[in-house]
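re: ur msg from earlier - yeah i can do the FE2/S2 (inorganic) cluster complex, just paste it... oh wait u already did. ok heres what im feeding in:
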Amino acid sequence: MSYTVTTGATSVDCGPDQPLLDAFLRSGVWMPNSCNQGTCGTCKIEVRSGSIDHRTSPENTLPQHERVAGFALACQATPCSDITIDPPIAEEPTSTHVLHDFVATVSEVRDIAADTRRVLLTLDEPLTFSAGQYVDVTVPGTSTTRQYSLANPPTEPKLLELHVRRQPGGVASEWLFGSIDVGDRIEMTGPYGDFTFDEENTGPMALLGGGTGLAPLKGIVRHALALDPDREILLYHGVRTCADVYDADYFRELESRNSGFRYVTCVSRENGGDREGYVTDAFVEDVASAKEFTGYICGSEKFVEASVKSFKRRRMSPRRIRREKFTAAG
Ligand code: FES
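and the outut:
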């Protein structure tokens, strides 16, 4: 059994237990989305006719007065009848890749920094995605899923690279830092998210990543440099201690091959790295004007907010700032 969900001239089928967003993305119809957990509000829609179940939509993202006014979170709400909606306002689709379920094989698990691992996954079929997007990984033997950004570029669609950080006691961490083994088969869904490489702007780029927030930035940097090896790209990686730095050799090697690429590590809680302190301060010190730049930020909520301020202080247009907030689910 399924219901029909219509927006404008487009209709998709949606099961009674299926979130509206899931139905659109699986049909290859773009709808803005970011967290897919009900926390960011990116997918907020207006229901014009029919009825829905808000399910676990959080009150702080979708307050009561908005529910009464007909708003809903497409990543949480399910249909109770055929419905018509007005989708969120999006300037343009950032990804039109069809969402789907797939199975990957673990091909490598490696410790790369303190409490940080790289997991490489081989796919039977290539995954079509945009640089910077993420996948949902199901913890084997459970119904628990966790989101991980892809650190590989879309030109490597059959070898996915994930960077994972241990969260003590977390069910996914217990697995990823415990029983996971090469050859394991893992169920996944993707690609998700609107944190993607901006193909339209070909000028300089600045990327600020906190901890494993480096992952999607690595995919974006690799993709951007493959398209234009001379492009001016500044990558700042912020960590707490020197033991948290990873992939430095990789990025140094990229620096040696691409004259416009600059890589800076910032260590905030001890002496070390290229700079002591925060990436946000280093960026403001280094760049007099970011007016022509496109910006990418990935990290904790605090990190993202501070980074947006730094970009704006250097006059980067808010329209050119893309951001991805991490949640520390273990
Ligand atoms: Fe639905 Fe974030 S609230 S994508």
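cool cool. The CA atoms of residues 173 and 179 lie 10 Å apart. ping me if u need the other ligands too
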